[in-house]
Amino acid sequence: MSEGEKIRVMIVDDIVDTRDQLEKLLFFEKDIDVIAKAGNGREAIAMAKQYHPDVVLMDINMPDMDGIAATEAILTQDPSIQVIIMSVQGETDYLRRAMLAGAREFLTKPISADDLYKSIRHVHRLAATRPRAVAATSDSGGASGGAGGSVSEGQIIAVFSPKGGVGTSSIAANLAVALRQMTNKKVALLDANVIFGDLSVILNLRSDKTIIDIATRIDDMDRELLNDVMATHTSQVKVLLAPPDPQRGELVTSDHIRAILDLMRREFDYVVVDTPASFQDRSLAVLDMANRIVTLMTLEMHCIRNIKLFLEVADLLEYPHEKVMLVLNKASNRTGIRAEDVEKNIQRKVSLQIGDAGQDMTFSINQGVPLVIGKPTHQIVRDVVALAKELVTVTKAAETPGQQAAPDQKSGGLFSRLIPKR
Ligand SMILES: Nc1ncnc2c1ncn2[C@@H]1O[C@H](COP(=O)(O)OP(=O)(O)OP(=O)(O)O)[C@@H](O)[C@H]1O
Ligand SMILES: [Mg+2]
After folding, report:
1. Which DSSP symbol is given to 358?
2. Of 152, 199, 336, 345, which alpha carbon lies 20 to 30 A from 235's?
3. For a pLDDT cut of 90, what percent of the chain falls above it?
4. Is residue 121 assigned to a domain?
5. Same domain flag for 283 and 170
6. Model-level pTM?
7. 76 within some domain
């Protein structure tokens, strides 16, 4: 798909009028060509094989074979095709199913011309810049790697906040499950909060094996030991739990964390880390090694102040700008502080907002069932899915894995790391 070539679009809808309307909307777009139209899922599969479209506009509700089944079949046939699902309002559960099937975008009918053009160009651009995460991806043999099929390192995603209590553990758990549901790839979740780890409660995982079983045998650590110690959540996310008490947590060092993450990124496609709210060595080890740091902020003055400080620290540590992704959690317009004003003040854009789930989040923690599973149509789940999608989409940071710390600067705390730089 070289520059200058037209985007080849196939329209799939059982209603003739809809097909024709969509074609008319696209007719005057110079960079878009409608190359095929299909009236049902089966026809779509055959036509995709014959015409190799770049983008498929797929209706969800069709007799015989629906849009989700057709999407799955088309992507198994040719994973490079980008599918945009079209649905009528209210079919929110379809969003999740469509994503699981490998769809890239979700448009709600009636579709505005603007949304249609934007979506087609957006998915087409993405196709050129990233490997595809397909539901049919193999589930074995380590990180699945990029489109070339070579085994490569997975992404380490640190969920972090310089302020405690803002939702780091809840978002990390939901994000890991969403990534698994969306990509069907190998997803690990590490509870790096070794003193007061919460993930066993949030995910209702009971296991007597924890990170301690690796830390105490670190020289013998290999994929078998890692696999044996990690607990398996019902979502198929593999979780390395924190020790059962703070005393044993103290035995886990930053070097242990580094070695464990190094093995994890070779074994998994995505490694989500619940990172402690501190600048101590264990947290810094995670932040250094992360490809992306999902930095959670709430609209509270003390949190905003800490975020500002953290962004300065991230600059001093020479983390690339795109590595730190600012995400607003518990976003609401009832706090007396507006996100836009904060952005101006800290001179940094908020990448994404996760709404305030109120008691629903607490309820889900008490149940031990993440909202992504317990309430898949909840607004917060949409926000978390959007976050997961963003992380899957941006691969640039994957090419610059976080190895910023020189070997002799890796430990010794933030102070000794920064002093030479000032
Ligand atoms: N988006 C949200 N909407 C509503 N409540 C939320 C949201 N995210 C987290 N919470 C709530 O915030 C509280 C703290 O969540 P959590 O334990 O995940 O935070 P944390 O940052 O990991 O805390 P700690 O610093 O203690 O590890 C919980 O009561 C949780 O239900
Ligand atoms: Mg926590």
Report:
1. T
2. 152
3. 68
4. yes
5. yes
6. 0.67
7. yes
